[in-house]
């Protein structure tokens, strides 16, 4: 723990007793002195001793540490000329007691290990070896990847890979953004639809006057000005009458198998629907096409214009093709061709500012009957 006597170059055979540690018998290193017996010991030596023998001096007195070292001891130590501990690995330096510690910390001949191959060598050699050692692990500052010097790392390839990765990341972010945008739009649309629906007026023929209820049920139809509209060439029909008629059709074994599907008009839980009388070709009635004659089913506002969102419509003769027309002051503003089916289908119109809806056949021959189960006005 102390300094080997052999490293003292100016001992000249003189006794080193006064500066020798009583524990390790080497030259004292960072010594402390016992106040009672005046013996000195290396710091490490006395610390170890006291761990095993608390408060007892190696000389058997009660150990009490002297505040300061004896002056003579300091003077003797400072006269020493000492060889560096790395003499065997090539250091030729001779140092004073005071400068020894600092020198040995920085000595070029200190043995150190290469961080790559772990080979031990003097610091001086390591400084040259390590920057070239093939085993040293390096880190790429582009991709942060680690690699051994001997394996190399292609910077251009690395940059290209990084670029591709970044592009993929950007693409993913953009896709995500797009999806969120679409989702947002869907939500906005739903909100708008919801808001609009709140303002909509739905006519579904379920609030026909209670006083006429039995009459309608019994007779299957009634004709009056309902919901501020004049319904021409339509009849109100109660589900009981549709069931009755379909039943009759089936019992009579009609050749027209489609004829007993009137009841399909009621599939959306409706009790009442509006049914046209048979819609025949205009030629059969000798009207010149496309005149909107009064024998076609029409719905006319009895107080100003209205905006229509949609109609729910079906037929007993599937694939009938009809034209729905929106008019104002008998001028045709909108027309839409509709293929009717057995099942009630919502046809969105979104027509604004009209005062009449007219229905007629799309082709100059044929015949159909249609059912209107719901009108949605905005
Ligand atoms: Zn010692
Ligand atoms: Zn002592
Ligand atoms: Zn040295
Ligand atoms: Zn190495
Ligand atoms: Zn890289």
UniProtKB/TrEMBL annotation:
PROSITE patterns the record matches: ZF_RING_2
Transmembrane segments: none
InterPro entries registered for this protein in UniProt: Znf_RING, Znf_RING/FYVE/PHD
GO molecular function per UniProt: zinc ion binding
Keyword Amino-acid biosynthesis among record annotations: no
Residue runs in coiled coils: 156-190
Keyword field contains Coiled coil: yes
Keywords of this entry: Coiled coil, Metal-binding, Zinc, Zinc-finger
Residue ranges of domain RING-type in the record: 21-58
Descriptive protein name: RING-type domain-containing protein
Gene source species: Adineta ricciae (Rotifer)
């Amino acid at each position: 723990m102390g300094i080997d006597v052999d490293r003292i170059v100016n001992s000249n055979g003189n006794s080193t007793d006064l500066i020798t540690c009583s524990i390790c018998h080497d030259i004292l290193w960072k010594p402390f002195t016992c106040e009672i017996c005046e013996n000195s010991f290396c710091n490490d030596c006395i610390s170890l001793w006291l761990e095993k023998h608390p408060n007892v001096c190696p000389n058997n007195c009660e150990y009490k540490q002297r505040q300061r070292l004896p002056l003579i001891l300091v003077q003797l130590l400072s006269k020493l000329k000492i060889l560096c501990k790395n003499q065997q690995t090539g250091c030729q330096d001779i140092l004073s007691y005071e400068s020894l510690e600092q020198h040995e910390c920085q000595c070029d001949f200190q043995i150190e290990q290469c961080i790559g191959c772990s080979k031990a060598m003097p610091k001086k050699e390591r400084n040259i070896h390590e920057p070239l050692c093939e085993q040293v692990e390096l880190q790429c500052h582009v991709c942060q990847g680690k690699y051994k010097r001997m394996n190399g790392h292609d910077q251009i390839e690395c940059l290209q890979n990084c670029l591709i990765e970044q592009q993929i990341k950007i693409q993913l972010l953009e896709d995500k953004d797009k999806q969120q945008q679409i989702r947002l739009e869907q939500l906005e649309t739903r909100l708008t639809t919801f808001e609009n629906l709140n303002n909509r007026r739905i006519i579904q023929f379920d609030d026909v006057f209670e006083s006429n209820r039995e009459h309608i049920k019994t007779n299957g139809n009634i004709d009056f000005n309902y919901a501020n509209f004049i319904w021409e060439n339509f009849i109100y029909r109660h589900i009981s009458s549709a069931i009755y008629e379909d039943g009759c059709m089936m019992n009579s074994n009609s050749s027209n198998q489609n004829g007993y599907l009137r009841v399909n008009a009621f599939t959306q839980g409706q009790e009442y629907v509006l049914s046209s009388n048979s819609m025949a070709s205009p030629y059969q009635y000798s009207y010149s096409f496309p005149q909107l004659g009064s024998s076609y089913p029409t719905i006319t506002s009895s107080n100003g214009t209205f905006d229509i969102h949609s109609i729910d419509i079906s037929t007993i003769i599937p694939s009938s093709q009809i034209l729905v027309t929106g008019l104002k002051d008998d001028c045709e503003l909108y027309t839409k061709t509709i293929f009717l089916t057995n099942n009630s289908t919502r046809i969105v119109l979104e027509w604004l500012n009209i005062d009449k809806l007219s229905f007629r056949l799309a082709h100059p021959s044929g015949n159909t009957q249609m059912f209107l189960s719901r009108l949605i006005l905005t």
